[in-house]
Amino acid sequence: MKKLILFLVIYLISFQVTFATDACNKIILQKAEFVWEVIKWVNVRSYPCIYKSRVLRWAKIWEQFKIIAKVDGYYKIRLINWKIVWIWDKSIKKIWELAKEDKWQEIKKIIKPYKLNYNDYIIINKINKKIEKIINNRWYKYKNVFINKLQKLLVKKVKSKKFIVIVNQIIKNIKKVNLNENALNLYKKFHIDIEKVKDYWLKLHNNERKKIWLAPISYDKRLNNSAYEWAIISKDKWNLNHRRNYFDSTYDYKKIENWFRERWVKCKIKARTTSSESIWKFSYRCFDSNCTDELYKSTKEIFDLYMAEKWTSYTPHYRAIVHKYITKLWLWFSISGPDNEWFYNYYMITHYCTEFED
User: Fold this and answer.
1) What's the pTM?
2) Which of 37, 130, 183, 276 would suit a FRET pair with 325, their CA atoms being 20 to 30 Å apart?
3) Rg of the chain in Å (alpha carbons)
């Protein structure tokens, strides 16, 4: 028995050593700069050592961040909110966007000269129909999975002009996949009558516009995809911001505008304005089988915060509500919960547009 206990003690000590690093005693940074992609679900830690750190959150598969340094078996990363955290090096890999940037330049040169013919479009439409069916039947995340896989495939087939142009067109079409069916199923899950909430949100807008003699604003389904997609992305990232890519500024207007256009949101320029995006994270408490009233009462609190910007130097949400030339909007939520106290958290996205281009 004593031998068995001794064996277990020695085994456990050696087991700990295999997971410990020299950084538990002293951090010596090594140079490492690249963008990485998560390939295994793994803890994001506060320190590059299991015994001196705490778990901050999970890093999800397909998530991407910028590596800024390395210590033993951990990489140092900076999150979007500028917080420094650490992640196990075996859970990530470099992604091709940086490693093979020269090939992307080559791809861009190839795409323009080759023109798609009738047969090419038949192939593209068949593939995109199957992909759209999978995305709507399974889950929105498959949209990004398909895009990611096809982009990597492009790099491997640089020499085939026809292949590159066809795959590039398929990727463009995937970005425009209609997600409405998928979204409506989410609201049913959380017992929400989304039409009632949307009517209330629109009424709040038009009441304020009426006070200053502005024409009423209205919903436009062409904003549906963009608003829904960004609501889900915000929830998946556990972070609420306007950045389409890790390196973007807080509100990179050109990149956001391009992101809108990829989803068929093409707004006219009116008084140096085309579109706008208002985002917020909030919660409501619900014990019933129908949580619609609780949600739309919660949105009133958000609206009041937007309107309060009128008396401050920072007014992006307020400007969108009372902008003379903004005439269209769409609203979507991404909801999670309930927790132990019956609180539901949600991300709310409102997309605005002046007028759509013909």
Assistant:
1) 0.62
2) 183
3) 24
